[in-house]
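Handout, page 2. Input:
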Amino acid sequence: MTTLFTSLRVSAFLAWKSIQRGSKGTLALTIMIIALIFVNLVFLPSIISGVVETFNTQSIDFDFGNLVIEPREGSQYISGVTSLQKTVERIPGITGTSPRIAAGATFFYKGHNAASTLYGITPDDERSVTKIADYMTAGEFLSNGDTDAIILGTTLAGTEGQEAGGLPSLQGVAVGDSVEVTYPNGETRTYRVKGIYQTQSISVDTAAFVTSREMSGVLGLRDQASMILVKTAVDGREEEYKTELLSYGIQEQIRTFREKAGGFVDQAIQSFNIINTISALVSLIIAIVVVFIVIFINTVNRRRQIGILKAIGIDQQIIINSYVLQVLFITAVGALAGMALNAGVTTYLTAYPLVFPGGPVYPVVEVSAILQSVASLFAVSVVAGYIPAWQIAREDILTAIRG
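Output:
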């Protein structure tokens, strides 16, 4: 043990002297390259995590809540909605339920028409589950007693003279205007636009809402709904709550917001992960090349010194270890610099998030990603530094001294 400790002390001494006498510019440049490689290893995974986080938040806050209760197999609507709501809301951890009636409708305004989804809601219930009421850009959210009012998503309302890129748009509806709505049963109603909202969720911003009271009257429904959105106290435990709901004897289909969203996001995340893997691989190859070149040049320039050290009795492994310790020092400082740089980038993007179609994306830096990046950097750096040191140190003394 004493011999091992002494060998490490000698290796550390040689490594430190080599760093002190080496080129400070080369050292600083190598550290900066390692720092940038670290940032590259951490940045893209943090953006992927941010995309997932944004999608989950949008889905829960605007589209589906945490869980969605749907009609039984073969049925178009859920019956006995009021009784089912009371049953669900008695379950511990359920903070709200909101029945929705959904139908495809055609909207007309000043010569423009658009086909999209119309929802019938009970506004007070909707407030307990989604946050659409908090995202009104003009006008007001619906009230329970409204029968002649409608609220539109900003995409559906549109901007005068501008197409919506293939999305449904009435090109310029404003609060107070009247729009005609044709229901799937052929009934047509004229509604005053009470408000316009913007959630940055495409499926919600292309839709419109009236009250369940109004929509039930048009479609001839009684205590029925197309779905019931369920809000839970804690996000991330949807499967547990789903099992709990089923244990209460609920016969309707129950899905989590992830199941309702389908495989689109999973496919997008898989594509991101492929890009991330390629990017990480390229970064690690760059790290290997940089460290290899730096240590190779360092050892070649010190071949005579290495020969003299061996001649006076310094063990070959001690010399190799001195270069490995240099690599560990450079990588450690580079990783710390990378963490500081990444913190700055993360702070900036938190204040000025990236704009994605589904909403603003904030980087979410996970501890596991940092640890994996640090471990990968150290692993490849040690290997890249060991090889040239081993090649030079194993030369015989006379050849090394001759240079």
